[in-house]
Every structure is written in C-alpha cells, then in structure tokens.
Amino acid sequence: MENPGITEAGLDSRKNFPVSLRLAEMETALLSVDRVKAGRIVRDSCTAGSPFTCLETLIVPALEEVGRRWEAGDVALSQVYMSGRICEEIVDSMLPAGDPRRVDQPKMAIAVLEDHHTLGKRIVLSVLRAGGYELTDYGHGVSVDQLVEQVTRDKVIILLISTLMLPAALRSKEAIARIRKIQPGTKIIVGGAPFIFDPMLWKEVGADAMGHAASETLELVNRMAAEVKR
Amino acid sequence: MKGTMTSMQRTLATMGFKEPDRVPLFLLFTMHGAKELGLSIRDYFSKPEYIVEGQMRLLKKYKGDCLNPFTYAASEIVAWGGEVIFRDDGPPNAGKPVILTPADIETLEVPSVEDSPSLLSGLRTIELLKKRVSTDVPIMGSVISPFSLPVMQMGFEAYIDLIYGEPDLFWKLMKKNEDFCVAWANAQLAAGATAIGCADPLASPDMTSTDIYRKTGFIVAQRTIARIKGGVATHLASARTLPRIDDLAKTGTVGVGVSAFDDIGEVKRAINGRMVLIGNLNGVEMRRWTPEIAEQKVKAAIARAGRGGGFILSDNHGEIPWQVPDSVLFAISAAVKKWGQYPLDWVQDGE
Hints:
The complex is a heterodimer. Chain A is of the alpha/beta class. In chain A, 57% of the residues lie in helices and 9% in strands. Chain A has helices at 19-31, 35-45, 51-71, 77-94, 100-103, 119-130, 144-153, 166-182, 193-197, 201-204, 214-229, and strands at 108-112, 136-137, 158-162, 187-191, 209-211. Chain A starts with 18 loop residues before the first helix and ends with a helix. Chain B has a single domain (7-339), classed as TIM Barrel, CATH 3.20.20. Chain B has 17 helices and nine strands. In chain B, the strands form two sheets. In chain B, strands 1-9-8-7-6-5-4 form a seven-stranded parallel sheet. Chain B has a two-stranded antiparallel sheet with strand order 2-3. In chain B, helix 7 runs parallel beside helix 10 and helix 16 (291-305) packs parallel to helix 17. Chain B is globular, with a radius of gyration of 19 Å. The model of chain B has no long low-confidence stretch (mean pLDDT 96). The chains are: A alpha/beta, B alpha/beta. Chain A binds chain B through residues 31, 33, 73, 75-79, 81-82, 114-119, 122, 141, 165-168, 170, 193-194, 197-198, 200-201, and chain B through 85, 87, 89-91, 93-95, 155-157, 160, 163-164, 205-209, 212, 238, 240, 243, 260, 282-285, 287-288, 321-323.
C-alpha cells in the first residue's frame, strides 16, 4: 500500500470540502483527543465500501502529519499515542482484524526486546493497524532466543524491534544476526530512544532501517511491503 | 573565594550564579561502582556499604563534584509493592505494574518510608556517604516525581488513558504520590542529602502537551516542591526542556536537567538566572566517543553555557550508561579541568 497522495476518490458527501481542510480538521480532532469528532469526520468524508481509500486519503495522512509534528517537537508523545489509538479504533470498525483485505500483505511482527516499556510498540501497532496492516504482537520482555525462535517459526518477513534502554538496543545486534543467518530475507526495522539518541546505532546493530516516529515506520513498512511483493 | 574550592563550594557558587574556580562536574554514576568493586550490578545494589565504597572510588578516580546514592528508579516501585527485573549490563527495570486497573487507585496504600527496606537502604547509603565527606561534597538525593511515577506504577499507556479519561482517579493518584514523594525526599534530606534531584520526564513537551501539563503535572510539581524541605532540581531524563523552561521555573525548582536535543546556549538564555542548568552530554552516544570527541563535547558545552556560573556539566539523562568506557570518562574529567577554569576568557561572544 504505497501512499498515493491525496485524491478525491472515496470522499463523497463532503467532496466539495477542500481536502486540506478535512485533513486539518482530522488532525485537530486527533490532537485534541476528540474521538467523536474524528469519527464524524471519517463518516462524513469516506465511502463505506472503500475503506482503503479512506485510509490513504484521510487517516494515514493525518497520522503522518501528527508524526511529523512530533519529530519537529510540536506535539507530545501522549498525543501521538492517543491519535494512533483513535485511528486504530476507527479503522477496526471499517476493517476488522482478520478482514481478508488485511491479509494480502507480508507476514509482520513486532516485539519489545528485553525491555518492559511498551508505549513505543503500542503506538507503532496502532499506526500500522490504522494503516490497514495486521501484525503479530510478540509482547514485551522478549529474549533474543525467544525472538529468533518466534520469527523463524512464523516466517516473519517484516520484523519491528522496539527498545527503550541502551542495553536492549545493543542486544538487538545478536538477535538480528541470528535471524539473518536463518532467514536472510527478513526485513528488520528498529526503533526507540537509544536509536534516536545515537543515529549510528541502527546500522551498528545491522538493521535495515530505523523508525524515528511511528508514522515514519508506516512509510518504511509500505516501502518494504511493496518491495517484497515485487 | 576562588583558589581551590571544595566540590560543595564550587557547586554552591554556581548555584548562586557566581563563577567558581571551575565548572562543577556531576558524573552521575549508578552502576559503575559495581565495576570498581568487581561485583554484579545486582550484588552491588544489595548493600549500602558497597554503594558507598563504589561512589567514593568513582569520586576519587574521576574527580567529579558530587556523590550519587541513587540506585535505580524501580526501587521506589518496590516500596509500592512492585518488583524489579535485574540485568547484567544495565539498570534494572520495574516489573509488573502495581496498579492493574484504574479502580485499584482507590485502595492503593501509600507506603511509609520507615517500613520500606528498599528506601531504608537508600537512607543508610546517604548517612554513610555523609560521614565520609561531611559538607565537602554534595550528595544528591533522588525521587521520581509524582506526575511521572505512574509510568512504572501502571504502565505508560494506561497512565495516558487515565490522564485523558479519568481525571478524578488521576488526582487521587497524584495526592497519594505527592505524599509519598514528599516523605521520601524529606527523609533523604534528613539523612544528609544536600539536595534532591526529581526525575520528571513527563514534564517535557516531548511527552505531555502544554495545555495538559499546565492542568496536571505543573500543579503537582508546584505543590510537591513547596513541601520538600530543601533544594529540588528537576530532571526531564533526556527529554527536551527548552519549551518548558518558564513553567519549570514557576514550579519552585532550583535546577533543571537539560537534554542533548536542547540547544544548551538557548536554554541558558531562556533560564535567565532563574535555575541552574545541568547537562547536557549525550550519554547514549558517549559509549562510542573517542577521548578527542569527549573533549570537544565538553568544550562546546562550557562555551555555550558556562559563563556567569549557573551551570553544572553532566550527562543529559542523570545516569551514565554501563557501556561508557573509562577512557571517555577520564577524557571528560580532564576536559573540564582544561576548559572549565573560570574566568572563561577563551570563550568568544556568540560561541
């Protein structure tokens, strides 16, 4: 699902309403943690039969903008989290987990390696689900051995590793090396504070990419999923 | 009085916005004492005597200007009935939350310091350090702010949901956390701590929006700091400070820990003599610095924030990671001696 940019397809009842205003309204509703208003904007704007178009033209761009503003230091992590939760709820109502339209994607999973702080994982899960993806959640406090076993057993194609503490981030190097040995085709994205404070670290641990923000992770997943399909 | 000052004199001078003999250096070690004593991190934290010995050896080795009896944040959670998960190469984590559902807040009991072995151990460490250094070296006590503690008490996601969704229960929890925090901070001051470092990462605009902070964490900080019988320095634990400076100054805090992502010169200007600036070397990156890079970073921080006092050089998180090598720590210490002597005549305007 590559981001097609903003189109009018799928936006019916308010099609004369400028897209930029709808997006701005949606973004404001998300940052104000106004579930009701966000839901109404989606209902008013989107055709029930084409949820993916709604994702691509309204929900994902709004989340991406929230993510960009977090990276720029304009909004708080709590707002990013709540925005992701609200969008996830909306998308789940349009495209429930297990919906066949979610299945046509590479096998994906996410884990918090050795750490017990789950907020980053939760935000990424919400944003990816709001983006129409389904992924397996391996939980938190996952050891290197457990992660290698789970990823190879499930034949995961795109793996997301979240960490908060530096020691756990460093341990991802061993996990990535062992996964690559068994399953060289697995794409691995790392994320979390240590990778932000040391911008060289993701390369040092052998990851394919790092996600600064959840919205950036969604873009990375879009790109990797498209590559895998090719 | 300049000449050669004690660490305490140096620190007090800079806190009074006067230039001491040199920039004070707070190397906030927690785990490194274990290396000095040849112990595992878990064993090291098991006895106040080990921590005292570790801190004293580190003080002598790196010639810093403070002692840090703090062990790990989760020690407070143990007092609340929680668990700690140790690891061999980093700080212990808090385990399962003690608040499993928001309704648990109603019956949550505030632990007393006197009945909490993990806190009593911390007090014993402070008492023993005080005997060793008297008033020559500042001893930094530590608390987790009432506003940030729930991240460990109930998990980050559940706490954000609480803030947005259940204000009554949020304020009940704050009241309990404030009582605990004040009692714990005052016990440390009574045991001999010079001042209290208050870790409050959720005060950062990176974590909490300004409108929510002003209605919640700001009020909590004001009320808490007013009841603590000593100086409190607020540390946002690596999160950005600059956009929050004016609010922090109004909480009553006397110092602020600054992120590596803050422009330290801009923060110094924004503070404008209201708080001491503590920071902002990047602890995560420090792991792979060379001694030459360490010197450059120290020099740059002093150039941007050193003049006029009101500045303590430190890392940006309040804890030096286990993985930072001795060579880098020696280089930081040497660079402060080389570039931190007042007056900082080598600093050009606008540098």
